[in-house]
Amino acid sequence: xxxxxxxxxxxxxxxxxxxxxxxxxxxxxxxxxxxxxxxxxxxxxxxxxxxxxxxxxxxxxxxxxxxxxxxxxxxxxxxxxxxxxxxxxxxxxxxxxxxxxxxxxxxxxxxxxxxxxxxxxxxxxxxxxxxxxxxxxxxxxxxxxxxxxxxxxxxxxxxxxxxxxxxxxxxxxxxxxxxxxxxxxxxxxxxxxxxxxxxxxxxxxxxxxxxxxxxxxxxxxxxxxxxxxxxxxxxxxxxxxxxxxxxxxxxxxxxxxxxxxxxxxxxxxxxxxxxxxxxxxxxxxxxxxxxxxxxxxxxxxxxxxxxxxxxxxxxxxxxxxxxxxxxxxxxxxxxxxxxxxxxxxxxxxxxxxxxxxxxxxxxxxxxxxxxxxxxxxxxxxxxxxxxxxxxxxxxxxxxxxxxxxxxxxxxxxxxxxxxxxxxxxxxxxxxxxxxxxxxxxxxxxxxxxxxxxxxxxxxxxxxxxxxxxxxxxxxxxxxxxxxxxxxxxxxxxxxxxxxxxxxxxxxxxxxxxxxxxxxxxxxxxxxxxxxxxxxxxxxxxxxxxxxxxxxxxxxxxxxxxxxxxxxxxxxxxxxxxxxxxxxxxxxxxxxxxxxxxxxxxxxxxxxxxxxxx
Length: 613
Fold this sequence. Notes:
Blueprint: H1 2-14, H2 17-47, H3 50-73, E1 79-81, E2 84-92, E3 95-101, H4 130-148, H5 174-184, H6 210-219, H7 243-254, E4 265-269, H8 279-295, E5 298-302, H9 331-340, H10 344-348, E6 352-354, H11 360-365, E7 383-385, E8 388-389, H12 396-409, H13 415-440, H14 458-462, E9 475-480, H15 494-507, E10 513-518, H16 521-527, E11 534-536, H17 549-556, H18 558-574, E12 577-580, H19 585-595, E13 604-606
């Protein structure tokens, strides 16, 4: 055996190098095949074990969930609500320009997955992590379903899907708000007064025991003139003089306890629709007709509103002011007025009149109601033009009255308008709201708004729900009016508006957000030259060059040309500061809404004055 081993060793040493390599390779291959057989047998044994099967199943599920999640988080940003489209435009760290084409919110959402379009004006340092993306998407889904299922009742009876947790601070429960406001906009069962001083907002829906309910009703003794309307914010000093009393008196004049009483007279009027009349002129005209109705002790009943004659306004609200805001009077009075219009004797007795009974002068420059004396004579000088406060001008009375009239006509938003604002706020502030909510949550404390048995906490539903939706504060609203307005007022370039904005920021250095409304594309383009401001604006087609407002609105269509200005109007009324041009009727009316909405002391910086002052 020793000789044999020696011979084998000599034979190997005598092999050629190539033969030795081939031999070594054959040996290696044999070893690899043996190893593969062993591994295969071992893998087969392991695959039949339960823990292995569970791990494989978990791995495959994880792959599927990750794929679905990545597809979801890359598909948000542009909301499609019928003809509504809102895009986001980040301009830098925490700086974004958001736009919207505000259209038919009541229509079914065209896509449930929200697509995202991001256009960076400079290198963005704002990183949207997965948690923010997921929260934003869940809020978008809730918003979509609340609009899609607008008329369906769910288990909580609110006509909305169960709200997400955590709650979206920038969204309103439009269905619930409309129901609450309907209760506040009618008289109580005793037909004396509306329930303005019992509870605020949804607190009136809080269920008391039968004994507590009886005690409350027994002790409650409404005093005429002592209750103030719930749509007015702030004290008398924070609004135009006598605002709370005037709003209360207008409501009672417009809501007689018995509309069929022969002493109740009516003024029925269509909204102005002559060519060239913009939406601001229509509002101003109806303010004049309300003044006539008060002077003649009539109930104003508005009829055909051409701007609501589109598919977004459905049912009885089509072609009606009630599509956007609560009606100016009760349904009983409306029915009574239209009945009297068919009776010849009612016309002969003067129980009914229409807009055609009055001249243009009566409507546009007629007598302002003197029922409340001359409150405009002691209005606070809070408007600045060219560096000086305006303490007096020739149209103080008209400025005060139009503010009261437009505030009353817009006292409560309809569910449709509320949804328009929800969509606009979500597109503009949704990501910021998600970051804010997540940054305020602590792992050491429970963040659920639910208590035992899965019920929401009462304070969440009945107290905190009355707060206004969140917006980044402070917020400056700026309406830049140019174009064909040059024939009526002095047109000022965008740079002058921004100069005034910097003046405000010098006093309030934490101000850096601007809600920009304008019909001119060049203004939007110029806003990109101010990287230290955050601009929010609707993504609607704007004018390029000169064209009349009527031509521009016709190019947008009736629905878009009505919805997006109203969103801008109401956002301006809720903003902390406002810069505009008092030579514009639109800015004039925005100023009126702010001065009857608790914002007198915020002031008003105007680039020009009204041409009639």
